[in-house]
Amino acid sequence: MELLRSYLSRVRIPEPTNRIYKQECCVSFETPKSKGGLFVDMNSFLAFGKDYVGWNYEKTGNPVYLHIKETIKPVSEDRPSKKPTLLAIGIEGGFDNNEPEYEVSYEIVILPDYVTLPFPSVELPEKVRLAVDAVIMAAGAERKEQISAWTADKKLVSKHAMDLKQLDNGVIVPPSGWKCEKCDKTENLWLNLTDGSILCGRSNWDGSGGNNHAVNHYNVTGYPLAVKLGTITADLEAADVYSYDEDESVVDPLLAQHLLHFGIDFSSLQKTEMTTAERELDQNTNFDWNRIQESGQEVEPLFGPGYTGLVNLGNSCYLAATMQVVFSTRGFYTRYYLNQNLKMAFDNALADPTVDLNMQLAKLAHGLLSGKYSLPATKKDDVGDMTNSTLTAQEGIPPRMFKSVIAASHPEFSTMRQQDALEFFLHFIDQVERINVGNPNFDPSRSFKFGIEERLQCPSGRVAYNKRHDYILSLSIPLHKATNKKELEEFQKLRAEKDAEGKELSADEIVRPRVLLKDCLDCFSAPEEVHDFYSTALDARTTAVKTAGLTSFPDYLVLHMRKFVMEEGWVPKKLDVYIDVPDTIDISHMRSKGLQPGEELLLEGGDSGFKLVANEDIVTQLLSMGFNYLHCQKAAINTSNAGVEAAMNWLLSHMNDPDIDDPITKEAKSAPQHSDIDPTKVDTLVSFGFEEELARKALLASDGDIEKATEWIFNPPTGTSHMDASQSSSTTVVDAVLPDGDGRYRLIGLVSHIGTSTHCGHYVAHIRKDGRWVIFNDDKVGASKNPPIDMGYLYFFERIDS
Fold first, then answer.
1. Residue 628 and residue 210: Cα distance in Å, rounded?
2. 200 is in an annotated binding site
3. How far apart are CA 677 and CA 296, in angstroms?
4. Whether residue 651 has pLDDT greater than 70
5. Up-side HSE of residue 261: CA atoms within 13 Å toward CB?
6. Helical (H) or strand (E) element with 330
7. Is the pTM of this model over 0.90?
8. CB-based contacts of 617, cutoff 8 Å, min separation 6
9. Which three-class secondary structure state does DSSP give residue 678?
10. At 560, phi and psi to the nearest 5?
């Protein structure tokens, strides 16, 4: 007892605002039910399993812990079963779910010698008794986060909704083809419910997202409510309505009326939902459910390393399916499991490892890949006797802490609503890239990254090249190229006959179009007309022809099938289609060739001479950071519109220039020329292994500073590329800073979706492991007998090394 008294200064009585972890270890998935129980640090209130509590003592020196242990209660054989009085499972008065009951015990443990003291005990110092009682009585942080996620879904009615002013300006909003009225953004668009303007959303700190045009419009006009395009479905409650005045997502009870003002007829949308096509889709949902989940088939449960399921936390299947595939790739397996043990991740973590993404990624990786938690679960028999228990499918691990960290910067993923697996994958990759900034060789997200080059040719014959980086290849599905057109024609006749007789089609009678994946890939590269394109050669707006190709082939290629489209009348529709996907594909022909001999580039400032003007996207993003408009223009011009990061660095370095407030002259700054670069600096970068053209471009963007140029090469500003087309471009474009190789790939996994919308339904993963297909359906893991290869939403391909 004297030993404990000597450590009283290291014991804290928790405040109401303290987060107390007592259900799960911070660095593993150990719980009070685990063999060694759980140890709660009585100073930081973090919890650790028996194998990991010593690490915390070494790191913090905190010696006093509350040891919580839960053991299964013995059940009397002659205990009568209670008659249920509620139609529910596992609650008082409901049906018995045969889950074992647990008895909780507590004791005080003092490290490093694991001296134990009983609790409760009147001999314990009062401070210890008060602290332990507070920990026991408090709702655990894990439980608090779950509750807050549920309550986060409860939006309030906007104070502006009932008397919202709407202008009679004749605006009619089309069901598709939206574009920001102030820039070229086609995603993250918001419809202002007062004047019908369509503008892009807020900009993120790194330049991603929108350009703040929607919120800027509110600042100018004061029109408070906007609805996010793409979220308007038959269920208007799912629509994302935002109040700029109240600065939060809100409910608009009159949304249907407000949408009708702009030609979006909600009443017709309701009726259209019950068309024949929609009824067929509803019927097919049952078919999808059975086939994608392989229901009705005897699936052999699998256990061991790499075969651990993830517990559904409440509509978290999008996360589970995505992470199972991601951690089956070499990059993530190596980075967070093979080359980083839990001790290393914990030692490098912040003071609170529960909010450290690297720590939680390592925890999740070891949970999924070690096999430690992939064991058959023990279940009581029908009378609750554990002695006659049976081994069933595994319990899986709950990714609570990981979800909490990865969702912290995204309001949607913080909720308990279903989400789009594609959106989550992109958000996840973005977060991983951020925590590995400065260490590109250790960044596993790079294995998904590739370059895209778009070529635009105007009627003058001149061309322009735009380049960007991406992590997914999003593919349209050309239904007109279906390979089973004859069967589809016969099906249409049968459907007409059934309709005439007032009968419904059975699921077995429905025929879906079959489209080759090759045709979807060809659509990506096919020429496409771009209307309203401004040609500096013609000094007029015209129609250009756009083609696209890849500047690099990633280690892992993710294909997104655009199965969700918007029809006339704003009717959302999921394409009822099969995609025939081969085991291997070759996309070598999709390699971009860059500027070709004889091609002439369109000039940015017109044929009369090159005049560089500030890129408005860069200016807008700098404005959102609080900089002066004139200063932002100068920063963009003086960095040749290289990007937000380069412009901001210039701005910070030139804030005190005597001419910083001088107006910009009519003759904008001429673009820096390659001849202006010091050849000795070029030679220095070439000696580092970089191509001469890349070295020149980096020095141009970095004012001739070698150190900044090197950083620019490894971490180019968002929206820029290393391969600006030039007359000296080679016949094949290669992105020097990205993984690259042959264009041959093998299918290793897919994420399938069941339901009529990406924001409802269910996601399941199928992964090729050890020469066979395996189904990952939340916590259920088993050998797949009939993987639904043709029903994927996201396909994951691994490059075949030559």
1. 20
2. yes
3. 69
4. yes
5. 18
6. helix 330-333
7. no
8. 183, 211, 719
9. coil
10. -105, 125
Query: CA–CA separation, 250 vs 269, rounded Å?
Result: 22
DSSP 611: -
Q: Is 431 helix (H, G, I), strand (E, B) or coil?
A: helix
Could you tell me if 535 and 544 are in contact, meaning their C-beta atoms sit under 8 angstroms apart?
A: yes
Q: Determine the Cα angle at 13 with ends 11 and 18, to 5°.
A: 110
Q: Which two tokens stand for residue 235?
A: 């269920």
Tokens of 59: 């790191």
Q: Residue 511 has which token pair? A: 């025929």
Establish whether 213 is an annotated binding residue.
yes
Which residue in the list 160, 469, 631, 762 is annotated as catalytic? Answer: 762
Contact 214, 201 (CB under 8 A): yes
Q: What single-letter amino acid sits at 92?
A: E
Is residue 25 part of an annotated ligand binding site? no
504 is written with which tokens? 């419904």
Beta-strand relationship, 156-157 and 248-251: parallel
Answer for the pair 800, 744: CB distance below 8 angstroms, yes or no.
yes
Query: 257, 199, 191, 195: which is closest to 228 by C-alpha?
Result: 191
Helix 679-687 to helix 706-714 angle (10° resolution) is 50
Q: Which of 132, 20, 25 is nearest to 400 (CA)?
A: 25
Between the alpha carbon of residue 386 and those of residues 76, 105, 321, 390, 407, the distances in Å are 10, 20, 32, 8, 39
Return the closest-CA partner of residue 68 out of 99, 113, 33.
33
CA 164 – CA 258 distance, rounded (Å): 8
Give the separation between CA 759 and CA 750, rounded to whole angstroms: 18
Place of tokens 């003291």: 117
Confirm or deny that 632 is annotated as ligand binding.
no
Task: Give residue 572's pLDDT.
Answer: 56
Confidence of residue 275 (pLDDT cuts 50, 70, 90): very low
AA letter at 369 = L
> CA of 536: how far to CAs of 483, 541, 606, 611, in Å?
43, 9, 5, 11
Q: Which amino acid is at 565?
A: V
What's residue 99's pLDDT?
A: 64
The string of pLDDT tens digits covering residues 353-385 is 999 999 999 999 999 999 999 988 765 444 444
Encode pLDDT of 210-260 as tens digits. 888 999 999 999 999 999 887 776 556 667 899 999 888 888 999 989 999
Whether 631 sits among the annotated catalytic residues: the reply is: no
Active site residue 317: yes
In total, the chain counts a number of residues equal to 802
Token digits for 434? Answer: 């951020």
3-class secondary structure, 465 = strand
Q: How far apart are the first and last CA of the chain?
A: 67
Among 25, 26, 317, 458, the active-site one is 317
Indicate the burial class of 141 (C-beta count within 10 angstroms; 0-12, 13-18, 19 or more): buried
Burial class (CB in 10 A: 0-12, 13-18, 19+), 793: buried
| Amino acid identity for residue 765 in this structure | A
Determine the Cα angle at 356 with ends 437 and 400, to 5°.
Answer: 125
Q: In this predicted structure, which of 447-461, 491-505, 675-689 has the lowest mean pLDDT? A: 675-689
